[in-house]
Design a protein that fits this description.
The complex is a heterodimer of chains A (about 425) and B (about 100).
Chain A lengths: L30 H4 L4 H10 L2 E4 L12 E4 L2 H9 L4 E2 L25 H10 L4 H20 L7 E2 H18 L7 H10 L13 H24 L7 H7 L10 H15 L1 H16 L1 H9 L4 H12 L4 E6 L3 E3 L2 E3 L4 E5 H4 L35 H18 E6 L4 E2 L8 E3 L1 E6 L2
Parallel strand pairs in A: 2-8
Antiparallel strand pairs in A: 1-2, 3-5, 4-12, 5-8, 6-7, 9-12, 10-11
Chain B lengths: L2 E5 L5 E5 L6 H7 L19 E6 L8 H7 L9 E3 L12 E4 L6
Parallel strand pairs in B: 1-5
Antiparallel strand pairs in B: 1-2, 3-4, 3-5
Classes of the chains: A alpha+beta (about 425), B alpha+beta (about 100).
Chain lengths: ~425, ~100
Protein backbone atom coordinates (compact mmCIF):
# COMPACT_ATOMS: atom_id res chain seq x y z
CA UNK A 1 0.00 0.00 0.00
CA UNK A 2 2.90 2.39 0.51
CA UNK A 3 4.45 3.43 -2.76
CA UNK A 4 7.98 4.77 -2.76
CA UNK A 5 7.53 7.29 -5.52
CA UNK A 6 5.06 9.50 -3.67
CA UNK A 7 5.94 12.42 -1.45
CA UNK A 8 5.11 11.64 2.16
CA UNK A 9 4.46 14.66 4.31
CA UNK A 10 1.85 13.28 6.68
CA UNK A 11 2.15 11.79 10.13
CA UNK A 12 0.11 8.88 8.89
CA UNK A 13 2.80 7.96 6.38
CA UNK A 14 0.41 8.55 3.49
CA UNK A 15 0.55 10.93 0.51
CA UNK A 16 -0.80 14.44 0.96
CA UNK A 17 -4.60 14.16 0.62
CA UNK A 18 -5.04 17.66 -0.81
CA UNK A 19 -2.37 17.76 -3.52
CA UNK A 20 -2.08 14.15 -4.67
CA UNK A 21 -4.28 13.31 -7.67
CA UNK A 22 -7.46 11.73 -6.31
CA UNK A 23 -7.09 8.53 -8.30
CA UNK A 24 -3.74 7.91 -6.59
CA UNK A 25 -5.28 7.97 -3.10
CA UNK A 26 -6.68 4.87 -1.42
CA UNK A 27 -9.84 6.21 0.22
CA UNK A 28 -10.09 3.12 2.43
CA UNK A 29 -6.66 3.34 4.04
CA UNK A 30 -7.23 2.66 7.75
CA UNK A 31 -4.11 4.54 8.80
CA UNK A 32 -5.98 7.81 8.36
CA UNK A 33 -8.37 6.66 11.07
CA UNK A 34 -5.49 5.48 13.23
CA UNK A 35 -3.86 8.91 13.09
CA UNK A 36 -7.11 10.89 12.90
CA UNK A 37 -6.04 12.49 9.61
CA UNK A 38 -9.05 11.37 7.53
CA UNK A 39 -11.01 14.63 7.57
CA UNK A 40 -9.24 16.63 4.78
CA UNK A 41 -9.45 13.80 2.24
CA UNK A 42 -13.16 13.30 2.81
CA UNK A 43 -13.85 17.02 2.75
CA UNK A 44 -12.07 17.15 -0.62
CA UNK A 45 -14.12 14.21 -1.89
CA UNK A 46 -17.37 15.90 -0.82
CA UNK A 47 -16.31 18.96 -2.78
CA UNK A 48 -14.63 17.50 -5.85
CA UNK A 49 -15.88 13.96 -6.29
CA UNK A 50 -18.88 13.16 -4.10
CA UNK A 51 -19.63 9.93 -6.01
CA UNK A 52 -16.11 8.62 -6.41
CA UNK A 53 -14.86 5.43 -8.06
CA UNK A 54 -11.67 3.69 -6.97
CA UNK A 55 -10.43 0.97 -9.27
CA UNK A 56 -8.75 -1.16 -6.59
CA UNK A 57 -9.79 -2.52 -3.23
CA UNK A 58 -8.61 -2.15 0.37
CA UNK A 59 -5.80 -4.56 -0.31
CA UNK A 60 -4.01 -1.76 -2.17
CA UNK A 61 -3.28 -1.08 -5.81
CA UNK A 62 -3.90 -4.05 -8.05
CA UNK A 63 -6.15 -5.74 -5.51
CA UNK A 64 -9.73 -6.79 -6.13
CA UNK A 65 -12.58 -5.00 -4.53
CA UNK A 66 -13.03 -1.81 -6.55
CA UNK A 67 -15.62 0.43 -4.93
CA UNK A 68 -17.49 3.70 -5.05
CA UNK A 69 -17.33 6.19 -2.18
CA UNK A 70 -20.35 8.28 -1.21
CA UNK A 71 -19.34 11.09 1.10
CA UNK A 72 -22.15 13.66 1.26
CA UNK A 73 -24.92 13.47 3.87
CA UNK A 74 -27.74 13.92 1.36
CA UNK A 75 -26.42 11.28 -1.04
CA UNK A 76 -25.94 8.78 1.79
CA UNK A 77 -29.58 9.32 2.82
CA UNK A 78 -30.71 8.77 -0.74
CA UNK A 79 -28.88 5.45 -0.95
CA UNK A 80 -30.17 4.32 2.45
CA UNK A 81 -33.75 4.90 1.29
CA UNK A 82 -33.40 2.78 -1.79
CA UNK A 83 -32.72 -0.70 -0.49
CA UNK A 84 -34.05 -2.23 -3.69
CA UNK A 85 -31.34 -0.70 -5.87
CA UNK A 86 -28.70 -0.67 -3.13
CA UNK A 87 -28.83 -4.09 -1.55
CA UNK A 88 -27.23 -5.00 1.76
CA UNK A 89 -26.30 -8.42 0.39
CA UNK A 90 -23.70 -10.00 0.40
CA UNK A 91 -21.81 -7.74 2.80
CA UNK A 92 -22.25 -4.41 4.57
CA UNK A 93 -18.53 -3.85 4.93
CA UNK A 94 -16.13 -2.80 2.23
CA UNK A 95 -14.74 -6.34 2.08
CA UNK A 96 -16.65 -9.17 0.44
CA UNK A 97 -17.29 -12.16 2.68
CA UNK A 98 -14.88 -15.06 2.48
CA UNK A 99 -16.40 -17.70 0.20
CA UNK A 100 -16.45 -20.53 2.74
CA UNK A 101 -17.48 -18.39 5.69
CA UNK A 102 -20.63 -16.84 4.32
CA UNK A 103 -22.76 -16.21 7.36
CA UNK A 104 -26.28 -14.85 7.14
CA UNK A 105 -27.18 -11.89 9.33
CA UNK A 106 -30.09 -9.54 8.95
CA UNK A 107 -27.92 -6.43 8.65
CA UNK A 108 -26.68 -7.87 5.35
CA UNK A 109 -30.01 -9.26 4.22
CA UNK A 110 -32.79 -7.58 2.26
CA UNK A 111 -36.52 -7.77 2.92
CA UNK A 112 -38.50 -9.92 3.39
CA UNK A 113 -36.08 -12.12 5.37
CA UNK A 114 -34.50 -9.02 6.94
CA UNK A 115 -37.83 -7.87 8.32
CA UNK A 116 -38.70 -11.30 9.77
CA UNK A 117 -35.43 -11.59 11.65
CA UNK A 118 -35.26 -8.02 12.83
CA UNK A 119 -38.82 -8.15 14.14
CA UNK A 120 -37.97 -11.26 16.11
CA UNK A 121 -35.16 -9.62 18.10
CA UNK A 122 -35.76 -5.90 18.22
CA UNK A 123 -38.18 -6.20 21.14
CA UNK A 124 -35.26 -6.91 23.45
CA UNK A 125 -34.07 -3.31 23.04
CA UNK A 126 -37.45 -1.62 22.87
CA UNK A 127 -37.55 1.29 25.32
CA UNK A 128 -40.05 -0.56 27.50
CA UNK A 129 -37.36 -3.19 28.22
CA UNK A 130 -34.70 -0.55 28.52
CA UNK A 131 -36.39 0.71 31.69
CA UNK A 132 -35.72 -2.73 33.20
CA UNK A 133 -32.13 -2.78 32.02
CA UNK A 134 -31.48 0.75 33.24
CA UNK A 135 -31.46 -0.16 36.92
CA UNK A 136 -28.88 -2.88 36.34
CA UNK A 137 -26.80 -0.66 34.06
CA UNK A 138 -26.79 2.13 36.62
CA UNK A 139 -25.69 -0.22 39.39
CA UNK A 140 -22.84 -1.60 37.29
CA UNK A 141 -21.79 1.88 36.24
CA UNK A 142 -21.68 3.03 39.85
CA UNK A 143 -19.59 0.00 40.84
CA UNK A 144 -17.15 0.51 37.97
CA UNK A 145 -16.69 4.22 38.68
CA UNK A 146 -16.31 3.60 42.42
CA UNK A 147 -13.46 1.18 41.73
CA UNK A 148 -11.41 3.60 39.64
CA UNK A 149 -7.99 4.53 41.02
CA UNK A 150 -7.59 8.12 42.21
CA UNK A 151 -4.28 9.95 41.97
CA UNK A 152 -2.84 7.71 39.29
CA UNK A 153 -3.02 7.50 35.52
CA UNK A 154 -5.00 4.62 34.03
CA UNK A 155 -6.46 3.54 30.70
CA UNK A 156 -10.12 4.63 30.48
CA UNK A 157 -10.70 2.24 27.60
CA UNK A 158 -9.87 -0.83 29.66
CA UNK A 159 -11.21 0.18 33.07
CA UNK A 160 -14.47 1.81 31.97
CA UNK A 161 -15.43 1.49 28.29
CA UNK A 162 -14.61 -2.19 27.77
CA UNK A 163 -15.65 -3.16 31.30
CA UNK A 164 -19.13 -1.64 31.09
CA UNK A 165 -20.00 -2.65 27.54
CA UNK A 166 -18.87 -6.23 28.06
CA UNK A 167 -21.05 -6.52 31.15
CA UNK A 168 -23.96 -5.10 29.17
CA UNK A 169 -23.49 -7.67 26.43
CA UNK A 170 -23.37 -10.55 28.89
CA UNK A 171 -26.69 -9.35 30.27
CA UNK A 172 -28.28 -9.04 26.84
CA UNK A 173 -27.45 -12.67 26.06
CA UNK A 174 -27.80 -14.01 29.60
CA UNK A 175 -24.26 -15.20 28.97
CA UNK A 176 -22.20 -16.66 31.85
CA UNK A 177 -20.95 -13.54 33.63
CA UNK A 178 -17.51 -14.92 34.47
CA UNK A 179 -16.90 -15.79 30.79
CA UNK A 180 -17.88 -12.38 29.50
CA UNK A 181 -14.36 -11.52 28.32
CA UNK A 182 -14.95 -14.04 25.54
CA UNK A 183 -17.68 -11.78 24.14
CA UNK A 184 -15.16 -8.96 23.74
CA UNK A 185 -12.66 -11.34 22.18
CA UNK A 186 -15.19 -12.67 19.66
CA UNK A 187 -16.48 -9.23 18.82
CA UNK A 188 -13.00 -7.84 18.23
CA UNK A 189 -12.12 -10.86 16.09
CA UNK A 190 -15.22 -10.35 13.97
CA UNK A 191 -14.12 -6.89 12.86
CA UNK A 192 -10.36 -7.23 12.63
CA UNK A 193 -9.61 -8.74 9.27
CA UNK A 194 -6.02 -7.89 8.39
CA UNK A 195 -7.09 -6.33 5.09
CA UNK A 196 -8.85 -3.47 6.86
CA UNK A 197 -6.31 -3.01 9.64
CA UNK A 198 -3.18 -2.45 7.54
CA UNK A 199 -1.95 -5.90 8.47
CA UNK A 200 -2.48 -5.67 12.21
CA UNK A 201 -5.55 -7.85 12.36
CA UNK A 202 -6.19 -11.54 12.09
CA UNK A 203 -5.80 -13.78 9.09
CA UNK A 204 -8.86 -15.45 7.65
CA UNK A 205 -7.81 -18.75 9.25
CA UNK A 206 -7.29 -17.19 12.67
CA UNK A 207 -10.70 -15.59 12.50
CA UNK A 208 -12.33 -18.82 11.44
CA UNK A 209 -11.03 -20.64 14.51
CA UNK A 210 -12.33 -17.96 16.83
CA UNK A 211 -15.71 -17.77 15.10
CA UNK A 212 -16.12 -21.54 15.38
CA UNK A 213 -15.41 -21.31 19.09
CA UNK A 214 -18.09 -18.65 19.41
CA UNK A 215 -20.60 -20.75 17.47
CA UNK A 216 -19.99 -23.74 19.70
CA UNK A 217 -20.41 -21.72 22.89
CA UNK A 218 -23.64 -20.12 21.69
CA UNK A 219 -25.06 -23.40 20.43
CA UNK A 220 -24.56 -24.80 23.92
CA UNK A 221 -26.12 -21.66 25.39
CA UNK A 222 -29.14 -21.99 23.08
CA UNK A 223 -29.84 -25.49 24.32
CA UNK A 224 -29.28 -24.50 27.94
CA UNK A 225 -31.73 -21.60 27.69
CA UNK A 226 -34.26 -23.83 25.94
CA UNK A 227 -34.09 -26.40 28.73
CA UNK A 228 -34.35 -23.81 31.48
CA UNK A 229 -37.66 -22.72 33.01
CA UNK A 230 -36.45 -19.24 33.93
CA UNK A 231 -38.22 -16.20 32.53
CA UNK A 232 -35.75 -13.81 31.02
CA UNK A 233 -35.57 -10.95 28.56
CA UNK A 234 -32.53 -11.99 26.66
CA UNK A 235 -31.79 -12.11 22.95
CA UNK A 236 -31.56 -15.88 22.69
CA UNK A 237 -34.88 -16.48 24.39
CA UNK A 238 -36.48 -13.88 22.10
CA UNK A 239 -35.18 -15.73 19.07
CA UNK A 240 -36.56 -18.98 20.49
CA UNK A 241 -39.98 -17.51 21.19
CA UNK A 242 -40.65 -16.07 17.74
CA UNK A 243 -41.87 -18.74 15.28
CA UNK A 244 -39.86 -17.22 12.44
CA UNK A 245 -36.57 -17.71 14.29
CA UNK A 246 -37.36 -20.53 16.73
CA UNK A 247 -35.17 -22.98 14.80
CA UNK A 248 -32.33 -20.63 14.01
CA UNK A 249 -29.87 -22.86 15.87
CA UNK A 250 -30.40 -25.49 13.16
CA UNK A 251 -28.99 -23.12 10.57
CA UNK A 252 -25.50 -22.46 11.95
CA UNK A 253 -24.54 -19.85 9.38
CA UNK A 254 -27.65 -17.86 10.17
CA UNK A 255 -27.31 -18.34 13.94
CA UNK A 256 -23.62 -17.34 13.91
CA UNK A 257 -24.25 -14.43 11.62
CA UNK A 258 -27.01 -12.93 13.72
CA UNK A 259 -25.04 -13.49 16.92
CA UNK A 260 -22.05 -11.74 15.42
CA UNK A 261 -24.30 -8.90 14.43
CA UNK A 262 -25.77 -8.46 17.89
CA UNK A 263 -22.44 -8.85 19.69
CA UNK A 264 -20.54 -6.50 17.40
CA UNK A 265 -23.40 -4.05 17.14
CA UNK A 266 -23.65 -3.72 20.88
CA UNK A 267 -19.99 -3.83 21.70
CA UNK A 268 -17.26 -1.64 20.30
CA UNK A 269 -19.63 1.03 19.06
CA UNK A 270 -20.81 1.89 22.56
CA UNK A 271 -17.32 1.27 23.93
CA UNK A 272 -15.71 3.79 21.60
CA UNK A 273 -18.37 6.38 22.24
CA UNK A 274 -17.72 6.06 25.98
CA UNK A 275 -14.07 6.82 25.36
CA UNK A 276 -14.72 9.44 22.71
CA UNK A 277 -16.88 11.54 25.03
CA UNK A 278 -14.09 11.91 27.59
CA UNK A 279 -11.59 12.79 24.88
CA UNK A 280 -13.76 15.36 23.10
CA UNK A 281 -14.72 17.15 26.31
CA UNK A 282 -11.02 17.49 27.10
CA UNK A 283 -10.26 18.73 23.59
CA UNK A 284 -13.09 21.26 23.92
CA UNK A 285 -12.94 22.60 27.49
CA UNK A 286 -15.62 25.19 26.78
CA UNK A 287 -18.02 22.32 26.13
CA UNK A 288 -16.96 20.56 29.33
CA UNK A 289 -17.72 23.82 31.19
CA UNK A 290 -21.19 23.92 29.62
CA UNK A 291 -21.82 20.38 30.84
CA UNK A 292 -20.57 21.15 34.35
CA UNK A 293 -22.94 24.12 34.56
CA UNK A 294 -25.94 22.12 33.29
CA UNK A 295 -26.16 18.34 33.48
CA UNK A 296 -29.52 18.65 31.74
CA UNK A 297 -27.39 18.79 28.59
CA UNK A 298 -26.40 15.13 28.94
CA UNK A 299 -28.97 13.67 26.51
CA UNK A 300 -28.02 16.22 23.85
CA UNK A 301 -24.32 15.63 24.52
CA UNK A 302 -24.80 11.89 24.05
CA UNK A 303 -26.12 12.42 20.51
CA UNK A 304 -23.26 14.81 19.71
CA UNK A 305 -20.70 12.29 21.01
CA UNK A 306 -22.20 9.58 18.83
CA UNK A 307 -22.16 11.88 15.80
CA UNK A 308 -18.65 13.11 16.36
CA UNK A 309 -17.18 9.68 17.08
CA UNK A 310 -19.08 7.93 14.28
CA UNK A 311 -18.07 4.53 15.69
CA UNK A 312 -18.68 2.81 12.34
CA UNK A 313 -17.18 5.08 9.69
CA UNK A 314 -18.70 3.18 6.80
CA UNK A 315 -21.38 0.80 5.68
CA UNK A 316 -21.49 -0.73 2.23
CA UNK A 317 -24.18 -1.62 -0.31
CA UNK A 318 -24.12 -3.48 -3.64
CA UNK A 319 -26.13 -2.26 -6.62
CA UNK A 320 -28.76 -4.60 -8.05
CA UNK A 321 -29.05 -2.65 -11.26
CA UNK A 322 -27.37 0.31 -12.99
CA UNK A 323 -28.13 3.37 -10.84
CA UNK A 324 -27.67 7.07 -11.37
CA UNK A 325 -26.38 9.03 -8.37
CA UNK A 326 -24.93 12.52 -8.24
CA UNK A 327 -24.67 12.62 -12.01
CA UNK A 328 -22.65 9.42 -12.24
CA UNK A 329 -23.79 6.03 -13.48
CA UNK A 330 -22.97 3.24 -11.03
CA UNK A 331 -23.11 -0.12 -12.83
CA UNK A 332 -25.01 -3.13 -11.55
CA UNK A 333 -23.02 -5.23 -9.10
CA UNK A 334 -20.89 -2.36 -7.81
CA UNK A 335 -19.71 -1.97 -4.23
CA UNK A 336 -20.97 1.34 -2.85
CA UNK A 337 -19.39 2.55 0.40
CA UNK A 338 -21.37 5.02 2.49
CA UNK A 339 -18.86 7.00 4.52
CA UNK A 340 -20.95 7.92 7.55
CA UNK A 341 -17.90 9.58 9.10
CA UNK A 342 -17.81 11.96 6.17
CA UNK A 343 -21.56 12.58 6.01
CA UNK A 344 -21.51 13.48 9.69
CA UNK A 345 -19.03 16.27 8.93
CA UNK A 346 -20.94 17.64 5.93
CA UNK A 347 -21.49 21.30 6.69
CA UNK A 348 -24.06 21.57 3.90
CA UNK A 349 -26.38 19.81 6.33
CA UNK A 350 -24.77 20.19 9.77
CA UNK A 351 -23.52 23.71 10.55
CA UNK A 352 -19.95 23.79 11.94
CA UNK A 353 -19.91 20.04 11.50
CA UNK A 354 -16.25 19.67 12.44
CA UNK A 355 -16.91 21.26 15.83
CA UNK A 356 -17.96 19.35 18.92
CA UNK A 357 -20.96 21.30 20.25
CA UNK A 358 -22.95 19.51 22.92
CA UNK A 359 -26.08 21.66 22.66
CA UNK A 360 -26.26 22.14 18.91
CA UNK A 361 -29.70 22.34 17.25
CA UNK A 362 -31.01 19.15 15.57
CA UNK A 363 -28.37 17.18 17.43
CA UNK A 364 -30.17 13.87 16.79
CA UNK A 365 -29.96 14.31 13.03
CA UNK A 366 -26.77 12.35 12.31
CA UNK A 367 -25.78 9.24 10.35
CA UNK A 368 -23.99 7.19 12.99
CA UNK A 369 -26.92 4.79 13.41
CA UNK A 370 -27.57 4.71 9.69
CA UNK A 371 -30.96 5.48 8.17
CA UNK A 372 -33.75 3.49 6.60
CA UNK A 373 -34.83 -0.06 7.27
CA UNK A 374 -31.41 -1.07 8.65
CA UNK A 375 -31.14 1.82 11.09
CA UNK A 376 -29.47 0.56 14.24
CA UNK A 377 -32.04 -1.22 16.37
CA UNK A 378 -29.94 -0.77 19.50
CA UNK A 379 -29.72 2.99 19.20
CA UNK A 380 -31.82 3.75 22.29
CA UNK A 381 -29.85 1.21 24.33
CA UNK A 382 -26.58 2.85 23.30
CA UNK A 383 -27.89 6.29 24.17
CA UNK A 384 -29.16 5.03 27.51
CA UNK A 385 -25.80 3.52 28.48
CA UNK A 386 -23.99 6.73 27.62
CA UNK A 387 -26.55 8.89 29.42
CA UNK A 388 -26.31 6.80 32.59
CA UNK A 389 -22.50 6.82 32.41
CA UNK A 390 -22.37 10.60 32.25
CA UNK A 391 -25.02 11.06 34.93
CA UNK A 392 -22.95 8.93 37.28
CA UNK A 393 -19.65 10.54 36.25
CA UNK A 394 -20.99 14.02 36.96
CA UNK A 395 -22.23 12.94 40.40
CA UNK A 396 -18.84 11.75 41.61
CA UNK A 397 -16.12 13.48 39.54
CA UNK A 398 -15.37 17.16 39.24
CA UNK A 399 -13.21 16.46 36.23
CA UNK A 400 -11.90 13.60 34.14
CA UNK A 401 -8.53 14.69 32.86
CA UNK A 402 -6.93 13.24 29.74
CA UNK A 403 -3.19 13.18 30.50
CA UNK A 404 -1.75 11.71 27.31
CA UNK A 405 -2.41 11.15 23.65
CA UNK A 406 -4.99 8.52 22.70
CA UNK A 407 -3.93 5.41 20.80
CA UNK A 408 -6.48 4.86 18.06
CA UNK A 409 -7.45 1.65 16.32
CA UNK A 410 -6.13 1.14 12.79
CA UNK A 411 -9.35 0.06 11.09
CA UNK A 412 -11.65 1.56 8.44
CA UNK A 413 -14.80 -0.15 9.71
CA UNK A 414 -14.42 0.57 13.42
CA UNK A 415 -13.34 3.99 14.65
CA UNK A 416 -12.10 3.75 18.19
CA UNK A 417 -9.42 3.67 20.81
CA UNK A 418 -6.98 1.19 22.31
CA UNK A 419 -5.88 3.62 24.99
CA UNK A 420 -6.87 6.88 26.58
CA UNK A 421 -4.68 7.77 29.58
CA UNK A 422 -6.69 9.66 32.21
CA UNK A 423 -6.75 10.79 35.81
CA UNK A 424 -9.99 11.30 37.68
CA UNK A 425 -10.63 14.14 40.09
CA UNK A 426 -13.38 13.27 42.58
CA UNK A 427 -15.81 15.84 43.93
CA UNK A 428 -14.87 16.95 47.39
CA UNK B 1 -57.76 25.33 9.61
CA UNK B 2 -57.87 21.87 11.20
CA UNK B 3 -57.60 21.30 14.91
CA UNK B 4 -55.22 18.56 16.02
CA UNK B 5 -55.66 16.83 19.35
CA UNK B 6 -52.40 15.17 20.33
CA UNK B 7 -52.82 12.49 22.98
CA UNK B 8 -49.69 11.30 24.79
CA UNK B 9 -49.46 7.64 25.79
CA UNK B 10 -50.37 8.50 29.36
CA UNK B 11 -53.55 10.24 28.20
CA UNK B 12 -52.41 13.86 28.44
CA UNK B 13 -54.09 15.88 25.71
CA UNK B 14 -52.87 18.88 23.76
CA UNK B 15 -55.12 20.69 21.34
CA UNK B 16 -53.50 22.87 18.70
CA UNK B 17 -54.58 24.79 15.62
CA UNK B 18 -52.75 23.18 12.73
CA UNK B 19 -51.29 25.13 9.82
CA UNK B 20 -52.10 23.62 6.46
CA UNK B 21 -49.00 22.80 4.44
CA UNK B 22 -46.79 21.50 7.23
CA UNK B 23 -46.63 17.91 8.44
CA UNK B 24 -48.00 16.40 11.63
CA UNK B 25 -44.40 15.92 12.76
CA UNK B 26 -43.47 19.55 12.22
CA UNK B 27 -46.66 20.63 14.01
CA UNK B 28 -45.77 18.48 17.01
CA UNK B 29 -42.25 19.90 17.17
CA UNK B 30 -43.50 23.45 16.75
CA UNK B 31 -45.84 23.04 19.73
CA UNK B 32 -43.32 21.06 21.83
CA UNK B 33 -45.53 17.99 22.05
CA UNK B 34 -43.52 15.23 23.78
CA UNK B 35 -43.27 11.81 22.14
CA UNK B 36 -42.09 12.63 18.63
CA UNK B 37 -38.31 12.35 18.19
CA UNK B 38 -37.91 13.17 14.48
CA UNK B 39 -34.31 11.98 14.35
CA UNK B 40 -33.97 12.26 10.57
CA UNK B 41 -35.74 15.58 10.30
CA UNK B 42 -38.64 14.36 8.16
CA UNK B 43 -37.22 12.10 5.44
CA UNK B 44 -39.08 8.85 6.28
CA UNK B 45 -35.85 7.08 7.15
CA UNK B 46 -35.82 6.85 10.93
CA UNK B 47 -39.33 5.92 12.03
CA UNK B 48 -39.21 8.06 15.16
CA UNK B 49 -42.17 10.23 14.27
CA UNK B 50 -44.48 7.19 14.44
CA UNK B 51 -48.04 8.09 15.54
CA UNK B 52 -51.63 6.86 15.24
CA UNK B 53 -53.83 9.15 13.16
CA UNK B 54 -57.60 9.46 12.96
CA UNK B 55 -58.99 12.10 10.63
CA UNK B 56 -62.36 13.47 9.62
CA UNK B 57 -61.40 13.46 5.95
CA UNK B 58 -59.04 11.53 3.64
CA UNK B 59 -55.33 11.20 4.40
CA UNK B 60 -52.64 10.83 1.74
CA UNK B 61 -51.88 7.19 0.97
CA UNK B 62 -48.97 5.39 2.61
CA UNK B 63 -46.22 5.09 0.01
CA UNK B 64 -43.72 2.17 -0.11
CA UNK B 65 -40.98 4.15 1.65
CA UNK B 66 -43.26 5.00 4.58
CA UNK B 67 -44.57 1.41 4.63
CA UNK B 68 -41.04 0.00 4.82
CA UNK B 69 -40.42 1.96 8.04
CA UNK B 70 -43.90 1.47 9.58
CA UNK B 71 -43.64 -2.27 9.02
CA UNK B 72 -40.76 -2.44 11.48
CA UNK B 73 -42.46 -0.62 14.34
CA UNK B 74 -43.13 -3.19 17.10
CA UNK B 75 -46.38 -1.38 17.96
CA UNK B 76 -47.60 -0.87 14.39
CA UNK B 77 -51.39 -0.53 14.18
CA UNK B 78 -53.95 0.02 11.43
CA UNK B 79 -53.89 3.78 11.89
CA UNK B 80 -50.08 4.02 12.14
CA UNK B 81 -48.43 6.80 10.17
CA UNK B 82 -45.09 8.51 10.03
CA UNK B 83 -45.97 12.02 11.16
CA UNK B 84 -43.48 13.50 8.70
CA UNK B 85 -45.36 12.03 5.74
CA UNK B 86 -48.77 13.47 6.50
CA UNK B 87 -48.91 17.07 5.37
CA UNK B 88 -51.93 18.80 6.83
CA UNK B 89 -54.65 20.06 4.52
CA UNK B 90 -58.07 21.57 5.18
CA UNK B 91 -59.73 18.59 3.48
CA UNK B 92 -58.58 16.34 6.32
CA UNK B 93 -60.81 17.96 8.88
CA UNK B 94 -59.89 17.74 12.50
CA UNK B 95 -57.30 15.16 13.51
CA UNK B 96 -56.66 13.04 16.56
CA UNK B 97 -53.02 11.99 16.81
CA UNK B 98 -52.13 9.42 19.46
CA UNK B 99 -48.48 9.10 20.39
CA UNK B 100 -46.88 5.71 20.93
CA UNK B 101 -45.44 4.39 24.19
CA UNK B 102 -41.96 4.83 22.76
CA UNK B 103 -40.03 5.70 19.63
CA UNK B 104 -37.14 3.47 18.62
Amino acid sequence: MFRMNQAVTQIDGLPDPLTTPLDELDVSDPRRFEHDTWQPLFERLRRESPVHYQSYGPGGEGSEGDFWSITRFADIMEVEKNWQAFSSEPSIAILDPEPDMVVQMFISTDPPLHDDQRRAVQGVVAPRNLQEFEKLIRQRTQDTLAALPVGETFNWVEKVSIDLTTKMLATLFDFPYDMRHKLTEWSDAATSDERITAGEGLTIDERRVIMMEMLEAFTTLWHQHKASDQESFDLIRMLQKDPKTADMVDDPLSYMGNLMLLIVGGNDTTRNSMTGGVFYLNENPGEYDKLKKDVGLIPSMVSEIIRYQTPLPHMRRTTTRDVELGGKLIPKGSRVVLWYASGNRDSDVIPEADSFIIDRPNVRNHLSFGMGIHRCMGNRLAEMQLRVLWEEIMKRFEHIEVVGAPKRICNNFVRGYHELPVRVHPRR
Amino acid sequence: MPVITFIEFDGTEHQVDADAGISIMETALKHNIPGIDADCGGSAVCGTCHCFVQAGGPLPAVDPQEESMLGLRPDRAEDSRLGCQVVISDEMGDLTVKLPEFQM
